């Protein structure tokens, strides 16, 4: 151990999954947990901040694809300072550095004062990236870059995205602009059209308007949008596939509709060689070596540092405010992230940031 650490910590704990999201949130409670001890190639992170993402809410409901043993601490990502390492070259190098951390596997998450992580799942933070922005570095920015890379590798000249007014949707617009890659963004309200256009989005369609399908079909053909990123599922998956040219692929990465993908024309699959695939960030990262992941993360941090992408923080929550805060968050998730600050709000400090 590099310093004296407490034996116990405070954490938000989930005892039981509930299909009803509000009931699931209300079941969360703060409890004392043992501070975990890192083994070889593991690190202990003193958490500075951790967001609540849609994937965290899905986990609370028990619908996430890879569940953990209960009781468990939620939180798939966050940022903090490595205060102990269990051995191994990379783990030792991370000591006393600020990192973004992803939690994978059956272990407690980031909604706690301390989190145990694999060293390989930690990304050093640049000096011009705050811990608050670093807390949201992995799930949204890396998903945006991963989806963009997937479309480019598939030979697409443009792409379509649903839920474009979300934090991730806005990031996709910016990373696509940075790569000079056209993207068609679908939203549900006129105010969201105005918002995205104010951010520089060129192609925005409002699905509450009668002619959006015709306009989508025309744009997809003209731009060569043979990839689509679907965060919604349900009938939207089929709507996208129908509007796209031959040999197109819809990549489903979310299920906001909480409905099975539907309205898929078998003739599109058979004769027009269209397809539907899933996109799971964890698998995408696993397929890349550590250097490629770090390179991608550095690109994301460059965009954050330049102000091209970033996460809007709606509210900062102490551990005791999590239930009340998240109940408000689910009413309007596009208004900004809820950020959990286990040790209270402090001015971000770059202790030994990667430069």
Beta content comes to 15-25%
**Total of DSSP H or I helical runs spanning 4+ residues:** 13
Classify the secondary structure makeup into a structural class.
alpha/beta
Shape: globular
Radius of gyration: 20 Å
The overall average pLDDT, rounded, is 93
Tell me the total number of β-strands.
Answer: 15
Percent of residues in helices comes to 25-40%
Low-confidence runs (pLDDT<50, min 5 residues)?
346-355
Q: Which assembly state applies to the chains in this document?
A: single chain
SSE order, one letter for each helix or strand: EHEEHEHEEEHHEHEHEHEHEHEHHEHE
Main pleated-sheet profile: 7 strands, mixed
**What is the first-to-last residue Cα distance?**
25 Å
3D architecture notes:
The protein is built from 13 helices and 15 strands. It is an alpha/beta fold and 355 residues long. The strands form three sheets. Strands 3, 4, 5, 6, 7, 14 and 15 form a seven-stranded mixed beta sheet that branches. The chain starts with 7 loop residues before the first strand and ends in a 15-residue tail after the last strand.
């Amino acid at each position: 151990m590099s310093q004296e650490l407490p034996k116990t910590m405070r954490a938000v704990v989930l005892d039981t999954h509930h299909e009803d999201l509000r009931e699931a949130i209300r079941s969360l409670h703060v409890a004392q947990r043992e501070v975990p001890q890192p083994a070889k190639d593991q690190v202990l992170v003193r958490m500075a901040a951790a967001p609540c993402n849609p994937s965290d809410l899905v986990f609370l409901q028990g619908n996430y694809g890879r569940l953990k043993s209960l009781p468990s601490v939620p939180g798939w990502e966050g940022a903090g300072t490595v205060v102990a390492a269990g051995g191994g070259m990379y783990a030792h190098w991370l000591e006393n550095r600020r990192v973004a951390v992803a939690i994978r596997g059956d272990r407690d998450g980031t909604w706690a004062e301390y989190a145990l992580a694999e060293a390989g799942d930690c990304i050093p933070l640049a000096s011009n990236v705050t811990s608050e922005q670093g807390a949201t570095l992995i799930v949204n920015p890396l998903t945006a870059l991963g989806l963009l890379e997937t479309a480019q590798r598939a030979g697409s000249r443009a792409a379509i995205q649903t839920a474009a007014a979300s934090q991730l949707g806005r990031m996709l617009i910016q990373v696509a602009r940075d790569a000079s890659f056209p993207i068609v963004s679908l939203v549900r309200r006129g105010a969201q059209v105005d918002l995205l256009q104010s951010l520089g989005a060129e192609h925005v369609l409002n699905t509450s308007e009668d002619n959006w399908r015709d306009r989508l079909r025309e744009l997809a053909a003209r731009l060569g949008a043979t990839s689509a990123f679907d965060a919604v599922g349900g009938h939207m998956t089929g709507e996208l596939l129908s509007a796209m040219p031959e040999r197109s692929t819809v990549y489903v990465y979310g299920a906001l509709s909480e409905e099975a993908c539907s309205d898929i024309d078998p003739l599109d699959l058979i004769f027009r060689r269209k397809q539907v695939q899933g996109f799971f960030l964890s698998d995408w990262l696993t397929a890349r070596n550590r250097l490629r992941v770090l390179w991608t993360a550095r690109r994301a941090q460059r965009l954050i540092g330049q102000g091209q992408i970033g996460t809007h923080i709606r509210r900062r929550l102490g551990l005791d405010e999590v239930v009340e805060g998240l109940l408000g968050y689910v009413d309007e998730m596009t208004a900004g992230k809820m950020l959990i600050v286990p040790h209270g709000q402090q001015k971000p400090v770059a202790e030994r940031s990667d430069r």
